Amino acid sequence: MSPSPRPVAAHATADGSEADGEQPEEPKPATKIEEMPLESKQKMIMEQRAKMKLAKKLRQRRKRLVRKRRLRKKGRWPPSKMKKLKNV
């Protein structure tokens, strides 16, 4: 089994607030999506899609960087180096 795909990093400060300065979102009252007006449903869905798209890009970038790091460690990166290593 491989380790979890996204390790969680925790940062603590002396006063207990978040290190980034970001305020946690205020809890919204629980409303069912069926009861919402159509415009806000669509807006909510579009916001969710945008978040998911951004998260996907971040995952792909992290995966690409990890791959490069592993290949560098094995001496197989950059790919242009492979031609030089064929005759060795």
Structure notes:
This protein has 88 residues and is mainly α. It has helices spanning 38-74, 81-85. The longest helix is centred in the middle third of the chain and has 37 residues, at 38-74. The radius of gyration is 22 Å and the shape is rod-shaped. It comes from Urochloa decumbens. InterPro entries: Ribosomal_cL37 (IPR040307). Residues 25-40 have a biased composition (Basic and acidic residues).
Question: Which keywords apply here?
Answer:
88 residues; mainly alpha; 48% helix
Question: Can you describe this structure in just a few lines?
Answer:
With 88 residues, the chain is mainly alpha-helical. 48% of the residues lie in helices and 0% in strands.
Write the layout of secondary structure elements.
Layout: H1 38-74, H2 81-85
Terminal Cα span: 35 Å
Show unreliable segments. Answer: none
- Give the class from helix and strand content and strand pairing: mainly alpha
Sequence of secondary-structure elements: HH
The percentage of residues in β strands lies in under 5%
Largest sheet: none
Residue-averaged pLDDT: 77
Share in helix: 40-55%
Q: What is the subunit arrangement here?
A: single chain
Cα-atom Rg, whole angstroms? 22 Å
Q: Can you count the helices?
A: 2
**Number of E strands:** 0
The backbone outline, from C-alpha atoms, is rod-shaped
